[in-house]
Every structure is written in structure tokens, then in C-alpha cells.
Write a structure and sequence with these properties.
By secondary structure, this protein is α+β, with helices and mostly antiparallel strands. It is 24% helix and 22% strand. It has three helices and four strands; from the N terminus they run αβββαβα. It has helices spanning 2-6, 57-65, 105-119, and strands at 20-24, 33-39, 42-54, 88-89. A hairpin with a 2-residue loop joins β2 and β3 (42-54). The model has no long low-confidence stretch (mean pLDDT 87).
């Protein structure tokens, strides 16, 4: 709410390019980040200017709550205002790469756990 009190809320995905954004990913090479959004069959890719880049969604939520910018969070976070509520982030595909043709029970259990935990 503090950030949006100082700046007009984006009305469409392209408006994000003019806002201070908070990136959530492991690398920050200084290049503009691509936020991929969808609304039904509509798709939008926005090159954002990430003022901050963190590797933890909770840290992004805290920065957004302190008025640092707009964060790409999937769920409603207490104390934050949703922007572009009819749009959502495109899902990210993850792969488990293994070197062995047959996986150990521990490896299968880990993959099953990650699949369930990240599906939400």
C-alpha cells in the first residue's frame, strides 16, 4: 500500500515496465527481467526494471510490505495490495535430472516430495 500511495497502480501488464519491481530469482545480472503473465488465453511478457532482486519470496513480500516496489507473488499476502488481480504468473516448469536409469528409493521419495510441495 505504501508504494501504491506514491505511484499509480498498473492497469495492464505493460505498465509494470514503468514501476520499481522486486525480482525473485537466484541470479541478478542487471539485465531487465521478463515477467510472464496470463489471463485466460491472453499472455503478456513484460520487461521489468527490478530495483531489488532476492532469492526468497518471503523477502520479496517483506520488501513489498515496506513500500519498495511490486513483487511477483502468487498468493494474497497479508498487508499487501494485489495489482493486476485478473492476471497471474505463468507457471514455471522444473525438471529432475538424474544420471542413473534406475532411481534409488530415496531419490524417488525426494522427487515425489518436491513435486507435491511445489505444486501448490
Amino acid at each position: 500500500p505504501d508504494y501504491l500511495a506514491r505511484r499509480p497502480a498498473p492497469e495492464r501488464p505493460a505498465d509494470l515496465a514503468a514501476h520499481d519491481c522486486i525480482g525473485v530469482h537466484a541470479d541478478d545480472n542487471g539485465a531487465p527481467a521478463r515477467w510472464q503473465l496470463r489471463r485466460g488465453q491472453d499472455r503478456a511478457v513484460v520487461m521489468t526494471r527490478e530495483r531489488y532482486c532476492v532469492d526468497d519470496p518471503e523477502m520479496a513480500r517483506q520488501l513489498a510490505a515496506r513500500g519498495a516496489g511490486i513483487a511477483p507473488l502468487r498468493d494474497g499476502a497479508p498487508g499487501l495490495v494485489a495489482v493486476l488481480p485478473e492476471w497471474e504468473l505463468e507457471p514455471v516448469t522444473l525438471y529432475a535430472l538424474t544420471g542413473a536409469p534406475r532411481l534409488s528409493a530415496r531419490a524417488r521419495a525426494l522427487i515425489a516430495h518436491l513435486t507435491e510441495a511445489l505444486a501448490g
